[in-house]
Amino acid sequence: MLSLSTCPVWQKPKLSMAGQSGYEMTSRRGRVVQLGPMVDTVPDIEVESEQPMAKSRSALAGFASRYARPGIKALIALVLLPYALILLYLLPFLHPVSTFMLADLALFKGYDRRWVSFNDISPVLVQSVMMSEDGQFCAHNGVDWIQMRGVVDDALKGRATRGASTISMQTSKNLFLWNGRSFIRKAMEIPLALASDFVWSKRRMMEIYLNIAEWGPGIYGIEAAARYHFKTSASKLSRKQAALLAVSLPNPYDRVAGKPGRGLRRLAGMIERRAVGSGEYIKCLYD
Would you give per-residue pLDDT tens digits along the chain (287 residues)? Predict the structure, then answer.
């Protein structure tokens, strides 16, 4: 008969590491029992699956670092270039060209522009242009804020907006920007107008404007316009001719100064009468 004393008596198991092969459990009599290897129930983390994504991110960051920064620098330089040119155009012997003139050259159209100094332009032409385009030219700082506020109010109310561009704004647009009505262009035009009006004298502003304004297909500047439409020079324009040229400025392709219709002649007659009484408005040009 088997005695109870001969039966193995087990103590509370004591576990000990047995290397990577498994674990051991010791009984009360000191007998060591070898257990099987421990099964790791935690799955391995797939680290390798993240490598392609990490490589893609690294490649994208490298592309951004290589191309985005130079692109941003080029954009900043392009935005600042007009302001540098404004300072450069202070020099009276420089004769600026407009973006539209450059476009004509790029399209192999060519253009006619003959630069004349302010003193060689008939005062009646200057008076007519001011009365037609910007009656407050001598009073504002480049932007007529009262007119601009009215345009903004009309736009917010959904009404058709009227023109509020000053001669300073039109000069900035012709020199540095493009045609077409957009808030982006206007947002760029306003600071340029303020800067140019601050840097240039009113006489220099008017001189540049009258030498880059378009008066027909490929006809730029008042000297070329006077010769094209009336076979005369800018210094010899009559009041009637000056008024016709002034009212054709908003749309010289449809409003042909040399061949005016009844409506254009009527509008020119009104500007001619205003020009006669414009003495107080042009003091900043003729002291």
Answer: 444 444 444 444 444 444 444 545 555 555 555 555 554 554 554 544 556 666 666 666 665 567 777 778 888 988 899 999 999 999 999 999 999 999 999 999 999 999 999 999 999 999 999 999 999 999 999 999 988 887 777 667 666 556 678 999 999 999 999 887 778 888 999 999 999 999 999 999 999 999 999 999 999 999 999 999 999 999 999 999 999 999 999 999 999 999 999 999 999 999 999 999 988 889 899 87
Q: How many helices (H) and strands (E) does the chain have?
A: 11, 5
Q: Assess if residue 129 is contained within a domain.
A: yes
Tell whether 36 is covered by a domain. no
**Cα torsion for 152, 157, 162, 166, to the nearest 10°?**
0
List, edge to edge, every strand of the sheet that includes 23-26: 14-17, 23-26, 32-34
How many domains are there within the chain? 1
Domain assignment of residue 9, yes or no: no
Contacts with 155 (C-beta within 8 Å, 6 or more apart), sequence order: 161
Q: What are the φ/ψ torsions at residue 241 (nearest 5 degrees)? A: -65, -40
Cβ contacts of 277 within 8 Å, gap of 6 or more:
none
Domain hosting residue 224, numbered range: 93-281
Cα–Cα distance measured from residue 144 to residue 222, given in angstroms and rounded to the nearest whole number: 25
CB atoms within 10 A of CB 179: 12
What φ, ψ does residue 78 adopt, rounded to 5°?
-65, -35
Q: Is residue 49 part of a domain?
A: no
Q: Domain of 177: which CATH number?
A: 1.10.3810.10
